[in-house]
């Protein structure tokens, strides 16, 4: 399909990219393009200008600090994350990236693109909320940090404003994490997803049941407490051809417990190792 | 044209199957259209044009991608491999021969993408298990064969 005519720039530095985005309200960042290019084919979105982030070194790389904190550049691809020895410090990241779409998409799709798109069916928004990740955002005024909990604002909307770029995702140390989803076909689009983390407090984030991930923090990591927390959240998920609202509510409860069980197993194996 | 300035068309240089092509392309042009329409390399197919079917799969700088989800301008300076580069003249690659021997195609529409995905898989994993073959071809849809002969062909082409 032919895209609408579009301007294109391939800046070599973060500063240059921000300048280009600030200068043009119709400019949009192009990360891996595995969503945006298709959206442009359908003309659901037609940016005037694409700012290609692929040659900006500041957005690349996966670094592991001595205290176990991971800093993942926004342009790290799913494949880079699942193959990275540094990212194995938080194994759930690679485990979930390995479930996204297929080899080709994993080779080009990026963590930054996944979360900035904030499609409610994407895997990484609920996961990063459960992991209590921090997002670094650069704009003309400098740098700011937003927690994952405050990052997702609505369907396709995040805290990254026009003229700004997500540059990195910082994930604290921990291993007791789990993820569970019911998908369209094996490793397809999520119908409902749940991510759990029991490093310290219990954090469970549900995907596909609201415009943004729904964070639950039950007092204890037992299945009954988690089920009660899901029910108390009074979810009102959307209905579509794949699942009714009632079925999504049911799945949310089931998957929250599965994600929690998986997180608890990982905590046990962490103690053993 | 400087890389950092905005333009709706630019001159790019792409090396495909060993030949370097320099062309002026519109920024909106998909890589698959550049390969097929501008260079007349029509082996890479367009099946769905939505990133689902994998018929347009090519290898860019060693990485398997769907060329309908990448702009031609993004391939500037890259080395691209398409299905036309697999055979050595009339001599089929081991993988192509295995597809033929195992009847791994019927209509053949998905075959160029299947071959590129299997080529990328066997490079990174010369002896894949059946599950790894399935996972490696997950991004390629075939509506004729039921996949089994394709898996058998890839298995046969993997090093024994």
CATH architectural category of the largest domain in chain B:
Roll
CATH topology of the largest domain in chain B: Ubiquitin-like (UB roll)
Distance between the termini of chain A: 52 Å
The largest sheet of chain B, given as strand count, sense and whether it forms a barrel, is:
5 strands, mixed
Beta content of chain A: 15-25%
Structural class of chain B: alpha+beta
Count helical runs of chain B. 5
CATH class term of the largest domain in chain B: Alpha Beta
CATH architecture of the largest domain in chain A: 2-Layer Sandwich
Strand order of the largest sheet of chain B: 2-1-5-3-4
What's the overall average pLDDT of chain B, rounded? 96
Count of separate structural domains of chain B: 2
Instruction: Describe the sheet with the most strands of chain A.
Output: 5 strands, antiparallel
Given as residue ranges, the uncertain stretches of chain A (5+ residues, pLDDT < 50) are none
Can you give the mean pLDDT of chain A? 96
Number of extended strands of chain A = 14
Summarize the helices and strands and which ones pair or pack:
The complex is a heterodimer of chains A (273) and B (160).
Chain A: E1 7-9, H1 14-23, E2 27-30, H2 36-41, E3 49-52, E4 62-64, E5 70-73, H3 78-83, H4 91-97, H5 103-108, H6 111-117, H7 124-130, E6 134-139, E7 142-147, H8 148-151, E8 152-154, E9 157-158, E10 165-171, E11 177-183, E12 190-197, E13 203-207, E14 214-216, H9 223-232, H10 245-272
Parallel strand pairs in A: 1-3, 2-3
Antiparallel strand pairs in A: 4-5, 5-10, 6-7, 6-10, 8-9, 11-12, 12-13, 13-14
Helix pairs in contact in A: 9-10
Chain B: E1 9-16, E2 19-26, H1 31-38, E3 57-60, E4 63-66, E5 79-81, H2 94-101, H3 111-124, H4 130-136, H5 148-157
Parallel strand pairs in B: 1-5
Antiparallel strand pairs in B: 1-2, 3-4, 3-5
Helix pairs in contact in B: 2-5
């Amino acid at each position: 399909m032919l895209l609408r005519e579009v301007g294109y720039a391939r800046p070599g530095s973060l500063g240059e990219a921000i300048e280009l985005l600030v200068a043009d309200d119709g400019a949009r960042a192009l990360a891996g393009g595995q969503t945006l290019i298709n959206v442009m084919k359908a003309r659901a979105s037609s940016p005037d200008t694409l700012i290609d982030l692929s040659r900006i070194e500041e957005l690349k790389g996966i670094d592991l600090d001595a205290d176990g904190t991971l800093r993942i550049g926004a342009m790290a691809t799913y494949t880079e994350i699942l193959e990275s020895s540094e990212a194995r410090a938080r194994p759930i990241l690679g485990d979930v990236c390995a479930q996204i779409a297929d080899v080709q998409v994993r080779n080009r799709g990026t963590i930054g693109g996944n979360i900035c798109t904030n499609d409610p069916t994407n895997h990484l928004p609920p996961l990063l909320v459960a992991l209590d990740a921090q997002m670094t955002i650069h704009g003309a005024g400098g740098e700011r940090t937003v927690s994952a909990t405050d990052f997702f604002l609505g369907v396709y909307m995040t805290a990254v404003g026009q003229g700004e770029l997500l540059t990195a995702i910082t994930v604290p140390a921990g291993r007791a994490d789990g993820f569970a989803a019911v998908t369209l076909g094996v490793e397809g689009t999520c119908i409902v997803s749940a991510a759990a983390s029991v490093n310290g407090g219990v954090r469970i984030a549900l995907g596909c049941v609201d415009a943004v991930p729904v964070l639950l923090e039950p007092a204890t990591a037992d299945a009954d407490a988690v089920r009660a927390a899901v029910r108390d959240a009074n979810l009102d998920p959307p209905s579509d051809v794949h699942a009714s609202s009632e079925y999504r509510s049911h799945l949310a409860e089931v998957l929250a417990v599965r994600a929690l069980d998986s997180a608890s197993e990982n905590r046990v194996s962490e103690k053993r190792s | 044209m400087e890389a950092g300035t905005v333009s709706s068309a630019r001159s790019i240089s792409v090396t495909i199957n060993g030949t370097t092509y320099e062309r002026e392309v519109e920024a909106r042009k998909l890589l698959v259209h550049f390969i097929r329409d501008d260079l007349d390399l029509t082996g890479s197919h367009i099946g769905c044009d939505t990133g689902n079917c994998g018929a347009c799969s090519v290898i860019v700088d060693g990485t398997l991608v769907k060329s309908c989800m990448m702009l031609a301008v993004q391939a500037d300076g890259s080395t691209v491999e398409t299905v036309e580069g697999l055979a050595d003249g009339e001599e089929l690659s081991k993988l192509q021969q295995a597809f033929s021997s195992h009847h791994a195609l019927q209509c053949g529409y998905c075959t160029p993408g299947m071959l590129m995905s299997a080529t990328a898989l066997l490079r990174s994993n010369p002896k894949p298990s059946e599950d790894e073959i399935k996972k490696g071809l997950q991004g390629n849809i075939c509506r004729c064969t039921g996949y089994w002969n394709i898996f058998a062909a890839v298995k046969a082409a993997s090093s024994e």
